[in-house]
Amino acid sequence: MYLLGLGIILLAMKYLEFGPVAAWSWWWVLSPFALAMVWWAWADWSGYTKKKAVERESAKKQARIDKSRASLGIKPHRRR
Predict the structure, then answer these.
(1) Is-above-0.90 flag for pTM?
(2) Cα torsion for 59, 62, 68, 73, to the nearest 10°?
(3) DSSP string spanning 26-66?
(4) Taking the CA of residue 10 as centre, how many other CA atoms within 13 Å lie in the half-sphere pointing to its CB?
(5) Cα gap 65→62, rounded to integer Å
(6) Which of these, 40, 52, 59, 60, is most buried using a 10 Å CB contact count?
């Protein structure tokens, strides 16, 4: 996501001819978009995206369990 933000900023600076970016080649300005595509392809291929999604779901599930136990007056169970 950072590469996408950087690409948008550089694209705006090049389009508006602001600062030293105005003199840069379009290849340099557009390179963060290409790097973002490579990153997303690697993240999907390696399972990184799915792993992070499972971690978020597990954290939400554990928070719901802890909240339910707290409302019942049971001490929340912490994993070791």
Answers:
(1) no
(2) -120
(3) HHHHHHHHHHHHHHHHHHHHHTHHHHHHHHHHHHHHHHHHH
(4) 18
(5) 5
(6) 40
Residue type at 76 in one-letter notation: P
How far is the C-alpha of 37 from the C-alpha of 67, rounded, in Å? 39
Q: What is the pLDDT of residues 11-60, one digit of tens each?
A: 999 999 999 999 999 999 999 999 999 999 999 999 998 999 999 999 99
- Tokens coding 39: 């990153």
Identity of residue 66: D
Q: What is the DSSP letter of 79?
A: -
* CA distances, 57 to each of 4, 6, 20 (Å): 25, 29, 44
Judged by DSSP in three states, 25 sits in coil
- Closest Cα partner for 44 from 56, 55, 34, 52? 52
